[in-house]
Amino acid sequence: MREALFIKKNKERWLKTETEPPTSPDEMAGSFTQMVDDLAYAKTFYANSKTVQYLNKQAAKIYLSIYRNRKEETSRLKTFWKYELPLTIQKHHKTLLFSFVLFTLFFLLGFFVSQQDMNVARDFFGDGYVDQTIENIEKDNPFGIYEGGNPLLMWLGIMVNNIKVAFLFFVSGIFAGIPTMYKLAETGAMVGIFDELFASHGYGLQFWLVVFVHGTLEITAIIVAGAAGFVLGKSYLFPGTKKRMEAFREGAKDGVKIMIGIMPVFIVAAFFEGLITRLYNDAPWFTTMVTAASAIFVVWYFILYPLKLRKQAKQVAS
Fold this sequence. Notes:
Layout: H1 3-19, H2 25-45, H3 50-91, H4 93-116, H5 119-125, H6 127-138, H7 151-171, H8 178-199, H9 204-237, H10 244-276, H11 284-317
């Protein structure tokens, strides 16, 4: 076949592939196969022609598209969890520290205020919850509140509620971060009051060993969600050298990344609360191990690992 006839016969299909690249995997594979066949034919009969160069270029483009799509599908999530999220967290470590300090201050405030006035716990949790907890304490089963209900339903209910609260923390950051600050302070005070309720009856240490089976991850995620809200709020309040809208878009993007990142933490924390915490009497060694593993994960993933990545990035840059 003459080269001109070969081009005339296939030109329309080549141009269509070039101007309207296939999007589905099947179409992409089909186009690549046809293009490789055409390239092999052209190399055989028109070895030094521009047609070979053109077909080689088009086949390479389709191959790269296939490779890129496959690579993104398999490694995008891995890249996000391994690099993108930790580096975003490290970028906002100071904001995360502020969120942690705020939570801790109101935790201590709630603890000591409740120590002075036992009615504070009733104001926060209601008479029914407090009376039930005291009744459990008198039965020498202070954390019996975690043993009731269907474990799976508890898991799902707690997970949905905590995720809703976390997104409220984040979204309300748009109002200069003030509602986020209030909600985070309120949550810190609530945990402090809850701690004092048990500590006042001689179960202060047990509180940390039992409640923090799930609380280590849950409270960490709440603090991080608060930090995401502050990132959103400060982005347009303090844009620095950037335009306010540009800074806001960047803050919103970072905040969303952080919120996506802590979703699995909430899911696992709710799973622990619904199914693992209740084992504190039957398998205290196991629940203590879960608490310790959670604490190690939190310190490593949210503090040490991001710092390590940042240090490596600086070394590469220099």
